[in-house]
Amino acid sequence: APWEKRVQTTVDTEIIRQLDTNRAAYVAVSSSARHGMVGFGAAIKTRKHVGDAPTIETFSSTLGPRTEQNPYVGELAAMAHAFGQLQRRKYHSITLLTRNKAALLTLRNPRQQSGQEHICSIYESIAKLKRKCDKIIVVWLPSGEDDELWTCAKEKAKEATRQGKEPQTPVPRARSTTLSVARAKRGTTSSLPCGKRKTRYHQ
Predict the structure, then answer these.
(1) What is the SS3 assignment for 64?
(2) What is the rounded CA–CA span in Å between residue 93 and residue 139?
(3) Is position 2 within any domain?
(4) ∠ CA 6-129-53 to the nearest 5 degrees?
(5) For residue 130, is it within any domain?
(6) Minimal CA–CA distance to 44: which of 196, 189, 203?
(7) Phi and psi dihedrals of 199, rounded to 5?
(8) Which helix (H) or strand (E) covers residue 9, if one does?
(9) Which domain holds residue 27?
(10) In a domain, 139, yes or no
(11) What is the CATH number of the domain that holds 114?
(12) What pTM, to 2 d.p., does this model score?
């Protein structure tokens, strides 16, 4: 099976309090079920060099009607797409945040749950990433814990389930923005510019 070496998962949120470093990727995923539709959003924070302003990439997708999809599968789909996006560069560590504990437990002990296509995709991507990445970990973020990157992902998930949204295939490319140098020097990621930002598309 593609998950012979299982993903490292944890509920220790202290991991996400560590200072940003270069060659580290921080990912947050979220799903949404509104207006009869299910969608997901994600945000990926990276920096190329020490001292550089972090770059935030975001993406979202409307998966399908609530009668055919659910938030749990939406969360797995977001993870699968995020890990796929990360294969473009080399990182020494990747940390992914999710509030969906069921999705995290599935990665810890995958069986015949729904969303097998996404689970297989996640493990295939992780197998490729581990060739050049020292550490990959998925962290459960309890509802009482705040995290700006996750909030950004949640906003994108809500965008995917606005009234009148239709399913999207394939998932759109990620959009990115660079945080201000001043904020980067302060060592904070508060108030991520999820709503008002200049964007560019990766080719």
Answers:
(1) strand
(2) 13
(3) no
(4) 120
(5) yes
(6) 189
(7) -120, 155
(8) strand 8-10
(9) 8-188
(10) yes
(11) 3.30.420.10
(12) 0.76
Task: Give the chain's domain count.
Answer: 1
Give the residue from 95, 170, 172 showing the smallest Cα distance to 129.
Answer: 95
Instruction: Encode pLDDT of 36-87 as tens digits.
Output: 999 999 999 988 777 778 889 999 999 999 998 999 999 999 999 999 999 8
Other Cβ atoms within 10 Å of 166 Cβ, number? 8
Calpha distance 84→163 (Å, rounded): 28
| Residue 144 CB contacts under 8 Å (≥ 6 apart), including other chains | none
Residue 152 · residue 82 · CB < 8 Å: no
3 assigned to some structural domain? no
Q: Which two tokens stand for residue 25?
A: 């990727």
Q: Round to whole Å and give the CA distance between 174 and 197.
A: 14
Do the Cβ atoms of 122 and 79 come closer than 8 Å? yes
Give the closest residue to 147 by CA, choosing from 3, 6, 43, 51: 43
Higher pLDDT pick, 62 / 176: 62
Q: Please answer whether residues 147 and 141 qualify as being in contact, where contact means their C-beta atoms are separated by less than 8 angstroms.
A: yes
Question: In terms of C-beta density within 10 A (0-12 exposed, 13-18 middle, 19 or more buried), how is residue 87 classed?
Answer: middle
d(Cα 76, Cα 7) in Å, to the nearest integer? Answer: 13
